[in-house]
Specification:
This protein has 529 residues and is an alpha/beta fold. The chain has 18 helices and twelve strands. The strands form three sheets. The chain has an eight-stranded mixed sheet with strand order 3-2-1-4-7-6-10-5, with helices on both faces. Strands 8-9 form a two-stranded antiparallel sheet. Strands 11-12 form a two-stranded antiparallel sheet. Helix 14 packs across helix 15.
């Protein structure tokens, strides 16, 4: 593992990554031309029944839905282009001028939580912190939220060897109850006992997040040039110790994230303050309301009652900032590395991640929507609404394709596969601009990512209390229950899921003119009228 980490981290400045035409080597362009040539050949040679009378309505529905979804995608891509090309460069220039003039924050606090992390990863994380502190010249404190002596010994020994030349203090807060949220809460309460000023900067970061060169110094001056800025989140790249296909999938997701984050930042908000690394002004973080929300965030659900959140602390911090109308932004050239160690089944880990991400989004999205567009820019509010809609609309196209194949035969399935190949490659062309390299597998990974993600969200929406987090002791909540109450609740959740999917299928069939709504005559024939 250490050898591979060293190899990947030889280039840790985002300005060194290939951009523009540097990614488009002759080999990549050849593969891309061959891909579209094969698609064109399939369109010309293979049987095409998409405009037959029996399936024309289905094709029109798929096309209309595609225009809507791709139009929304292009909207994000255009906004991301504006932010990356015009808005952020101006912010960066102003920040560099302030930094060059000698401005520095009074103190820098690193709030880091870790749990039995690999030694090589922990040392690289701490080394990256030392580099940022040394480069900025700002006094700093590492607040370590820990639950095990193992991690504490590694960090203490490393700092004793490497940190003798900088003004850095290590404060260890040993948690007495399990969970990352409890660790963060205890750290924040410890901070409250010291004279921390409102404009001090607090970096929230995970114990497996390795800071890229300049990651912190690129964030700090933004808080000086914009007194209303309360939080920012940063770019991420993945170091995957596991199957290659998982690594490609994660890289594709991070490319999607860059487009979405820059689009959202145009409205001075983001949709998550990523727990891997975000920087906050201390003003809000030392408030009792903020600390309690992190420690004991919960939801009142009509089926599952009151239950607390295990993961998703980044969504809780984001919701607090959104609720208080705080300005947030995204820093595209502040880079860090997420280390993903995949042990066991890669597919199982993928589904677990989807369940955690989707569950966190669903649990927080509904209450954020209820804040209304008056508490946030309308675009951000509609993005939250769209997250709820897309989980259903993404399933419409595959459902229609299956129905059309049952009507028309395999020829329609072939046509649909060609449609997926072309449409997802067109979307991938935008992703390639935000990806470190060009992967020809992106179109298919993108499609299955959308399909699996939507399916997991539909499953989770009626099971919001069921949580499992393999980190920090493999925590779980609501996963098992032998009582009659739990059995009844699980049965109701299954019933609601089945009814919702049935309504989706029937509504889709009706919209595609495959079934007609019941009439008074048909109801009377069934004895219902």
């Amino acid at each position: 593992m250490a050898v591979r980490l060293d190899t990947v981290l030889n280039i840790d400045d985002p300005t060194h990554w290939p951009t523009g035409w540097a990614k488009w080597s002759p080999m990549v362009l050849t593969h891309l031309a061959l891909y579209f040539a094969i698609c064109l050949l399939c369109i010309l040679v293979l049987p095409n029944s998409i405009w037959d009378a029996e399936t024309r309505a289905i094709t029109l529905v798929i096309g209309t839905l595609g225009i809507w979804r791709y139009g929304w995608w292009f909207t994000h891509a255009f906004r991301a282009f504006l932010f990356g090309r015009f808005v952020y460069p101006k912010m960066r220039q102003q920040g560099e001028e302030v930094w060059a003039a000698g401005w520095r924050p009074r103190h820098l606090h690193f709030m880091m939580t870790t749990y039995k992390e690999h030694r090589s990863i922990t040392e690289k994380v701490v080394r990256s912190i030392l580099r940022e502190v040394r480069k900025s010249g700002v006094p700093a404190t590492i607040w370590l939220g820990s639950s095990d002596r193992f991690d504490e010994d590694i960090i203490e020994d490393f700092l004793e060897r490497e940190a003798g030349d900088i003004d850095l203090t290590l404060r260890i807060i040993r948690q007495n109850v399990p969970g990352k949220r409890a660790a963060i809460g205890l750290v924040l309460r410890a901070m409250c006992r010291l004279p921390i000023e409102q404009d001090d900067l607090i970096v929230f970061m995970d114990g497996d997040f390795i800071l890229g060169e300049g990651a912190v110094s690129r964030c700090m001056p933004l808080f000086q040039i914009d007194p209303e800025l309360e939080a920012c989140t940063t770019d991420e790249e993945v170091i995957c110790i596991g199957p290659r296909w998982i690594e490609t999938w994660l890289k594709m997701r991070f490319a999607q994230r860059r487009i979405a984050m820059q689009s959202h930042a145009m409205s001075n908000r983001v949709l998550t303050l990523t727990g891997r690394m975000s920087v906050f002004r201390a003003k809000h973080l030392l408030q009792h309301e903020f600390i309690r929300l992190l420690e004991a965030d919960h939801l009142e659900h009509w089926l599952w009652g009151k239950f607390r959140f295990l993961s998703g602390d980044d969504k809780s911090t984001w919701y607090y900032m959104l609720k208080h109308n705080a300005r947030m932004t995204y820093v595209p050239d502040a880079l860090g590395y997420t280390v993903e160690v995949i042990e066991g089944s890669g597919l199982d880990r993928m589904v677990q991640n989807f369940r955690r991400w989707s569950g966190n989004m669903l649990r927080n999205g509904a209450r954020a929507i209820r804040l209304g567009p008056s508490r946030m820019p309308f675009f951000i509010w509609w993005c939250l609404v769209d997250q709820r809609l897309s989980m259903w609309t993404m399933l419409v196209s595959p459902v229609l394709a299956v129905l059309a194949t049952a009507i028309q035969g395999i020829s329609y399935a072939i046509s649909y596969i060609i449609f997926i190949a072309v449409s997802r490659m067109l979307l991938s062309l935008f992703l390639y601009n935000y990806s470190r390299c060009v992967h020809m597998a992106y179109p298919w990974i993108l499609f299955f990512n959308q399909l699996i993600n939507a399916s997991v969200k539909v499953y989770c929406i009626f099971r919001l209390s069921k949580q499992r987090w393999t980190n920090r002791g493999n925590q779980s909540a609501g996963m098992d229950g032998a009582s009659w109450v739990e059995i009844s609740r699980n049965a109701m959740a299954s019933w609601c899921t089945a009814v919702s999917v049935a309504i989706l299928v029937v509504a889709t069939m009706h919209y595609a003119n495959l079934v007609a709504p019941p009439t008074l005559i048909s109801l009377r024939a069934l004895g219902l009228g």
